Amino acid sequence: EEIRVTDDPSLRYADFWLFDDEAVFVMRYDKAGGFLGTDQPNDVVTYRHIRDLVWEYSVPLAKFTARAAGQ
User: Fold this and answer.
1) Single pTM value for the model
2) What local confidence, expressed as pLDDT, does residue 22 receive?
3) Going by DSSP bridges, is the β-strand pair 16-19/59-60 parallel, antiparallel, or unpaired?
4) In this structure, which long-range contacts are made by residues 39-47, counting pairs with CB atoms below 8 Å and at least 24 apart in sequence?
5) Do 6 and 56 form a contact (C-beta atoms < 8 A)?
6) What angle do CA 52, 64, 25 make, to 5 degrees?
7) Lowest mean pLDDT among 13-17, 31-35, 37-41, 65-69
8) Quick one: DSSP state of residue 45?
9) Cross-strand bridge partners of residue 16
10) Residues 33-54, buried b or exposed e (16+ Cβ, 10 A)?
11) What percent of the chain has pLDDT over 90?
12) Greater confidence, 29 or 71?
């Protein structure tokens, strides 16, 4: 399991989880950032492509949270 994050607004396509390159769950939020639930699109290939495009601009979650905490 590898969780990666990008904080570059120009690269934000969607907040999604891709499991084993076979299942994708897209997170839904309200305007205040509250979690509403997930959608499970059938087009996994699109989300694989998005992942591949932004991979080099993302960082592991642990590094992202440490940086956000000022460490």
Assistant:
1) 0.77
2) 95
3) unpaired
4) 44/18, 47/14, 47/16, 47/18
5) no
6) 50
7) 13-17
8) H
9) 26
10) eeeeeeeeeeebeebeebbeeb
11) 58
12) 29
